[in-house]
Design a protein that fits this description.
Chain lengths: 172, 150
Amino acid sequence: MSRVQILEGLLEQRGLFELKSLLTNDEGPRRMIVAPGVFADVMPPFADTPEGERLGELRGWLDAFMEGNELSVAENPDRKPPDTMLARVRPVEAEFWSIRVTDPDGTPGIRSLGAFSDTDEFIALRWEYRENIDIFDEEVQSTIEAWRDLFRSEAPHSGSNLDAYLTIYRAV
Amino acid sequence: MRTSQFTGLSEPEGDEKISAGTLAYISTRVQLWAYNLVVKEFKNSGITQAQLARRLGKGQDLVSRMLSRPGNWELKTFSEFLFAISGAVLKFSIERPLANAAQNATFYKVKSVSTARPASTASVETVMQQSEFHIIKQSTDSTDKVAAAA
């Protein structure tokens, strides 16, 4: 089975979930698909706590992705501005990326790791408060394993430049 | 295994407190729309960051930093940037995207969630009202809407 066929099967069987804007319930120009563990935490009601606040922000960023907002994107995992919104992670050849929520001020933010399944189509498999990630490579490894559990030998989407991944972005 | 049920957001009702998480979601959305509006306007204008910095009488470092991420900009800063970029003026209108939430709500049931942490367990009713920004170019009178959730 191809990656596309596996993905459609997973969506049907609720092994993955496609998000829709919380405000309109519409599909946007981009697709954001999430693992059940991510889905459970980015769906309202959001808690009346600092953690709930941070998850509300994460969901805001995910919805902005779907709506086609411009993203700052770093291809080099070792050289990126601290406020980069989407960054490739090591090992580069594995084709995994980190959504970087850097707000609210005063917190290290949240990272949500995953991979592209197609242009403008991202699958977020995990998320974590940045301060809880001691060894980032281990977080990446767990994400790679989560991908393999779902897609077996099918690799994530890849391309020769950022245009292959996103239509609206700003390389940083 | 655990089973949870989720629904969409709904408008505020009565005296019930809006959760911090919901307010954060709403303010994040509006911040990102507003930021996107400025960035789009800047791209369309064809001017450089150095030019914009000169128009604003600010350092290029500051302008570059402001354009690099959707921070919590002050309204004053938004207004100044938009005007300096293209002569655009920020105007506001509001809509209530959740007014028909009952019809639009999507219900999900998640089973066998395997995650390192428990799902959010907030019990507070969620709330919101979406703001929508418009900008009007003084010179052309053309209107450009933020790519709102629509």
